[in-house]
Amino acid sequence: MEPTSVYKISNYEQLKALADPLRTKILMNLVKEPFTGQQLAAFLGITRNNIYFHLKELEKHGFIHIVKKEEKNGIVQKYYRAVASRFIPEDHLLPNGDLIETSKQVFFETIELTRKKIKTAPSSSFKLNESNQSTWKNLAATYQFQATEEEFTQFLNEFSQLYKKHFNPLKKSEKNNNRKSYFLSLIGFQDNSEKITFTYEHEENGKNEKDIR
Length: 213
Hints:
alpha+beta; 38% helix; Arc Repressor Mutant, subunit A; 3-stranded antiparallel beta sheet
């Protein structure tokens, strides 16, 4: 079962449970796909006892659940999955210092995941191709701009709709052998900087071009 879109955090005990950076990391991985405790322990480089302690806490507070069980060599393996793709607090819980640190951890984990994807992606992902000069094969860009909170929120909403329009969800019936896997990482936040800079890099006309303003 795929995670629902949003889970509302309703009490301070839940916020406190998510304040632990390791639990945030575990939850982010379980948003992507189901894992057993053993798989998570190996992936994150921690002991099984430690991982099961944190899984129990996340399950107790309703953030994850068991989606399937498999028996292997007489041992039942439980697969855990996040109950939602996003977790947001109800209004009466805000502002909250623990939540700020948890939110920062989500950003750090997103950056780290992007870094790992770049390192493990095949060389062809970054290869220039002069035979198709008008096609963008990849994108590396940062933007810095001024906007009202309403304008930034509107942009994020429109971006979300654009993504869903083109890529999500892909119906199982829409099988296409020409489809390839792409990874897109998006991070945005208010930085309170007065100096506006712009860096944009992409493949165009067979060359990797960069523009800084």
